[in-house]
Amino acid sequence: MKVTPLAFESLGVRSQATLVETKDVRILIDPAVSLAPRRYGLPPHQLEVDKLIELAKKIYEISKDIDIIVITHYHYDHHDPGYVIPIEIYSNKMVFIKDPTNNINNSQKYRRAPKFLRALKDTPRKIEIADGKEFVFGSTKLIFSNAVPHGADERLGYVIQLGINDKDGTVLFTSDIEGAPKEQHLDFTKKISPNFIIIDGPLSYLLGRALSEEDLDKSIKNMESIVKNGLQYAIIDHHVLRDLNYENVLKPVKDVAKDFGVKVISAAEYLGIEPNLLEAHRRELFKKENKPATIPRGLAKLLHAGDN
Questions:
Q1: How sure is the predictor about 299, in pLDDT bands with cuts at 50, 70 and 90?
Q2: CA nearest 197: which of 251, 274, 270, 131?
Q3: Residues sharing a CB contact under 8 Å with residue 143, sequence separation 6 or more, in sequence order
Q4: Strand 16-21 and strand 2-8: pairing?
Q5: 8 A C-beta contact, residue 232 and residue 195
Q6: Which of 223, 270, 218, 209 is nearest to 19 (CA)?
Q7: Which domains can be identified in the chain, with CATH numbers?
Q8: For range 163-189, the mean pLDDT
Q9: How confident is the model at residue 308 (pLDDT cuts 50, 70, 90)?
């Protein structure tokens, strides 16, 4: 099995887009990229938009040789109804989606999920609601969790987690569980016993607003318990890397991981490059060069046109 992070906060955008390849299938998980509309009271910097376009192109190109696409929930950094990445990426693919009507908050149930499904139309070969189900492709098994809360606050909705097993190992993609503050976040991890996990980490940059000290402590303790149970690799990226202080936040987890011989790194470090935390450094970017920017209108159409 080969795991390739495609777009994450450590690579410069809001995303958790990941490619998983086995000898049977190529699986693209949450193929979307986005930017914080405001951070520190500032809009995106031009460098952030440049990086978003670069990674959107990368996802689009990779999608041409994909068998399966997975959508774990309907936030715009995890799914795209054709705003940034062309909807053609779903053409003739098997698409597994989070249930759009059950265990879902109102924003996703009544606006985002229906809009996405209308955009898909008949583009995919098949669309399958994945919650709590298992699917087999040769020697590769896809195991989906039941819907679990998007972190500690259920008002943010629910996500599905995905375990991929190819007999040689198991990778767990947690989606947005915000560092697993609830026991039900851990249940699926215990069920599939992964040796490789991709987990988003807590919303520590919103501590005191969208995250309490108690829930942060629970997340850290639960991530510590995860790395004690047979892991070899843990990519911790996405939410927690919006925090300039993320290394200190994750230090207790990394200390435990070191004792158990587990490699805990960002997506960028897994790829052998330095983390590029553009959003977290937005203030510094504007101090160096005052270049506010917006995502070009019709970017998805432009990417698709460039393929003609």
A1: confident
A2: 270
A3: 134, 162, 163, 164, 165, 191, 192
A4: antiparallel
A5: yes
A6: 270
A7: 2-289 (3.60.15.10)
A8: 95
A9: very low
